[in-house]
Amino acid sequence: MFRFSVILAVVLALCAAGFLLLPAGRALIEDARDKLGEATPVTPVDVETSGAVPGHPATDTTDGLNNRYWGAPGPGASVTYTFREPFRLVDLIITNGASRSPEEYARQARALRVDMEVTAEDGTKHRKEIALGDKPGPQTIPTGISDAKTVRLVLRSPAGLAPGRHLALAEVEFFRRS
Fold first, then answer.
1. Architecture field, domain 40-177
2. d(CA 154, CA 138)
3. What is the DSSP string of 116-162?
4. C-alpha angle with apex 112: 106 to 89, nearest 5 degrees?
């Protein structure tokens, strides 16, 4: 009888631990699948912005070209990307500034911080503050967010902002787990 009680207590303890650690375990499994799987690009079906300077629409951030950019009117400007169907957002690649070219990059202001808000299909919001280096070229941000339906980026902490200059964001690329 004593042996049965000990076995029962161990089984109950394992069940309780499994139940309590299930979310953490699920997150570890998803993270491992993200790292071991191959990421494929996904393109938004709609791009909306809070504002843009003439000649530099927000759609330039998803055109696949890094020599055109979204010209944001100032800090706090936002761009929202909407996707056809929910997906596991594995990585985000941001090409900050006006271009990958160092000369063009230095001609406009850049955001050194971006606030990201990902809305899942069920309405759950995931927020992340992204620190960007003040350098031309792509910067990869690992995300690991499931069921992403929209991604909103808000530009913060401008560098190089002066009269006659505006915040520039050259390219934003989204990757899903394949």
1. Sandwich (2.60)
2. 18
3. EEEEETTS-EEEEEEE--SSSSEEEEEEEEEEEEEEEEEEEEEES--
4. 115
pTM above 0.85, yes or no: no
Which residues of the chain have a pLDDT value below 50? Answer: none
Give yes or no for a contact between 112 and 159, defined as CB atoms under 8 angstroms apart: yes
DSSP for 12-67, written as a single string: HHHHHHHHHHHHHHHHHHHHHHHHHSPEEEE--SEEEES---TT--GGGGGSS-TT
The pLDDT of residue 132: 96
Q: Which amino acid is at 73?
A: P
Q: What residue has token string 């000649």?
A: 55
> CA angle, 50 as apex, 48 and 56 as ends, to 5°?
75
In angstroms, rounded to a whole number, what is the distance separating the alpha carbons of residues 169 and 92?
Answer: 14
